[in-house]
Amino acid sequence: MKNKELIRQAKKHGTPVLFIDHDVIRANYEKLRKHLPRVGLYFAMKANPEPQIIKTLFPLNSGFDVASLQEYEAVLGNVPAKALRGHKKNDFIWDKIIVANTIKPIATLKAITGYNTLMTFDNPDELTKIKEHCPDAGLVCRLRVQNVGSVVELSSKFGVEPGDAANLIEKAFNIGLTVEGLSFHVGSQCCNIDNYLNALEASAQIFKEVGKRGFKMRLLNIGGGFPVPYDGNVPDFEGLAKKLRKEIDRLFPKKIEIVAEPGRFLVATAATLVVEVVGKSFRDNKWVYYVNDGVYGTLSGVIFDHIPYHFSSFKRGEKKMSAVVGPTCDALDTISTAEMLPELNIGDFLYVKNCGAYTNGSATTFNGFPKAKIVNINA
Ligand SMILES: Cc1ncc(COP(=O)(O)O)c(C=O)c1O
User: Which CATH number applies to 23-267?
Assistant: First the structure.
């Protein structure tokens, strides 16, 4: 959206307001498909749970990576009725959902048993739960892989050590479960291609070892992590994809289905947040602007996602070092201590680009401030 239109829309809807452009989501999806044509995509809903995104991606043939029963039900509730018509519990679109949380509450397993859902696991206790409460699941063994240099590290919490994976998979088959394949996650906003290359190599070894033991797997899930160009230091996606394509084809025969669970890459660049200056104060030799959304709201990614967000002004004028803070009564609610901005007045708008991933999804209403309104464009 051009600046004039952004201001007009912000005035119309009120601030704070998050504009999500679905044409950008479609373009990001097509870009992934074009550069990784062998890789089927499950959108990781945790990156942005806005229901309209499910409606946009489903017709493009996207699947969905869900982390909870609530996200699972959100998919069921937002795909077109005709896609579900005639589907009964036992023949549900199992290629459309993967429960990619290695730890699932028993109530969740009970609720989705009968749907033949794909789900990840990484420990024997989870296998026992699945055997008892959701034995028809197709299992995907998540590996612990290197997350070096990724902005959000995940390996401290998830994944079986590659050296222990074959034994765990054998155990699953021996108790009557079906292991469809392997998954890994190299860490979110991964700018280190070696993380992917090492994980692919480790996965290929495990495919071989499991095969030697007489068991067949058919699927490799390469997770998410595809980096978004928040700044100029991020490696270009085309180069990364080229290396990935080559390595996947070298290590995995065509009969192995390759899928991924991208979150950030599909949605980050699709959203722009507009906030309003609700107060200002000259402190520590710079202007501090208090705006009506912050770290407890849409810019929660400053804390949870380790992403620094930067503000742009619609106003011209000499730029001075400034700070921008959120509206709550907590000093942690500091969005940026170093923004170059012209002097602003109360009521002026600021905007933040590339605000579509891990933002509204982790926003709270701390201090009673409502979450930003979401406005879907080109939906
Ligand atoms: C299991 C799993 N899959 C996929 C994703 C999405 O990753 P990204 O947003 O980096 O693509 C995440 C993010 O935390 C995850 O935990």
Answer: 3.20.20.10
